[in-house]
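REVIEWER CHECKLIST
Item 1: Sequence provided? yes
Item 2: Single chain? yes
Item 3: Sequence as submitted:
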Amino acid sequence: MILAYMDEAGGVSYQRPDKSRFFVRAAVLVRENQIGTYQEVVKAICSDFPTRNGKELLFHTHKIFHGQDGWQQWAEQRRRELLIGMAEILVAENVPIVYACVDKKKMVEKYRKPLNPHLMTFVQCGEMVERWTHQHAKEHMWIPCVGSNDFNREIEELFVSCRRFGSPFGWWERKWDVAIS
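Item 4: Structure as written out by the authors:
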């Protein structure tokens, strides 16, 4: 199994595309049997950042970068070193990454009712993950790992639909015959 850890940046609203013009989603692809190795490497890097009041600090790039939710106790330079260390893991291990971007300004100019950027970028990333697995891991299927907000629940539903019936754009080649819950 390939786990596609996904995260996004940018606002979804088309009302003010100038305020947040782009919506981006990226997926880091990890083979299930590699998770333990990566967890150990990440733990080693994060061990220099002790917990706050007995609670573990959540590794969320946005919070680390902006010094929020406990990360403000660390100087900006130190937080950036942590983020760079994480990026270096991805490079050193040659971890595959795919991404998709929606230019909301162009979408508003071109379409009367553009689709939700969350869903568009998911389908785009999904197509790239499908191509990657077809080339590098034919024997594996993949599953998205996303957060738990309403948009991500829609993504989970869309994933199930794409797996059963194919992508709306027709690029997902393989369909699962088994029910996915």
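Item 5: Key structural point noted by reviewer: Residues 7 and 122 are 10 Å apart (CA to CA).
Item 6: Recommendation: ____
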